Hints:
Layout: H1 14-20, H2 23-26, H3 30-46, H4 52-71, H5 83-95, H6 97-100, H7 108-144, E1 149-154, E2 157-163, H8 164-188, E3 191-192, H9 208-214, E4 219-220, H10 224-229, H11 232-259, E5 266-267, H12 286-309, H13 323-347, E6 349-350, H14 352-361, H15 366-375, H16 380-397, H17 406-412, H18 420-423, H19 426-431, H20 441-457
Parallel strand pairs: 3-4
Antiparallel strand pairs: 1-2, 5-6
Helix pairs in contact: 3-4, 3-7, 3-9, 4-5, 7-8, 7-13, 7-20, 8-11, 8-20, 11-12, 11-13, 12-13, 15-16
Amino acid sequence: xxxxxxxxxxxxxxxxxxxxxxxxxxxxxxxxxxxxxxxxxxxxxxxxxxxxxxxxxxxxxxxxxxxxxxxxxxxxxxxxxxxxxxxxxxxxxxxxxxxxxxxxxxxxxxxxxxxxxxxxxxxxxxxxxxxxxxxxxxxxxxxxxxxxxxxxxxxxxxxxxxxxxxxxxxxxxxxxxxxxxxxxxxxxxxxxxxxxxxxxxxxxxxxxxxxxxxxxxxxxxxxxxxxxxxxxxxxxxxxxxxxxxxxxxxxxxxxxxxxxxxxxxxxxxxxxxxxxxxxxxxxxxxxxxxxxxxxxxxxxxxxxxxxxxxxxxxxxxxxxxxxxxxxxxxxxxxxxxxxxxxxxxxxxxxxxxxxxxxxxxxxxxxxxxxxxxxxxxxxxxxxxxxxxxxxxxxxxxxxxxxxxxxxxxxxxxxxxxxxxxxxxxxxxxxxxxxxxxxxxxxxxxxxxxxxxxxxxxx
Length: 458
């Protein structure tokens, strides 16, 4: 039965009904729909809008419906128009006229706005927990590899020496901000729309604060039109998820590079790689590649939500039914990616000796060589030119700054002395970078422990 059938003289066309129906994706919110209905019925009874005995009968039956769904005794009817219609129809079938009183002072507009907020608040918590797990893995791994020298890159060219731990902590900081964005998104959706009705509230003396408290919301929404007419909280969550996917995708790109024979900085556990059907030597980083690819899917979900909302007049429009598939897909995709990504990183084996070799061959201590001359009294620009001349000489003669003789150094500048070798040591170059946020091992340890403490406190 359609909840709006009274106005119409004949049944809706089946194809139209299929097009209009949302049960295939909003049935995901059935627990939230029932929970919201129980709170609404409780409030109606407390306010004397329906009899207390009727309110209790409705709540008890809704609890039984939820139990029957959980046990598999009751299956969701795929022909129902939406989850609200299904629950109310099942309730009415079980207790008759009393069940019809549930929808007093409520519209599907404020009902669905409540359901989706309840659902997404829960999803925010679940995603946040996964990101916390990932950050913890990164911090622990960074502590283990705080002293392992590797090249840092700009323009994908070896630039300056850092450590593997420092590199991992860069991503830990990114994911920490993602955690904050999820928290902010949840906080801004923490208002209860129930009581807004279709768009203009109701003449019934509702206690919206009571319903908000029963459902765990910070409070009720303040404008009935806004309550049902916007899905900016879906957009905000999709945006936060998109940024998390950006960070996962960038990290995946680096893992893919690091796994290649050209880098060979890390080795993925066999449980998180695949082979080739024709090339027996292959070990492919498929999880990282899939995560990188799935980022585009989430960006599309965000664009769907923005485009769906941009031209809508107030208040509710059927276009807004498109919110759920997009935001649920974004949520599910991030969850799926994190589920595979976290253990992949946790079991990933770094190869420090290969990182060190790459660092030694990349002239990434050239800046430190120039700084050495500055320490001897030379202007930085002159020191920069002298060091550049040395690098060009090394490339021409297949040498590194470490393997140049002191005589070769002095052909460029007579300020060089034996202490230059200590000054350009990769370990010294890294260990000397002690300014806050730089890659000195003690800094990496401080950064990792700081983040772990933040996670523990929050």
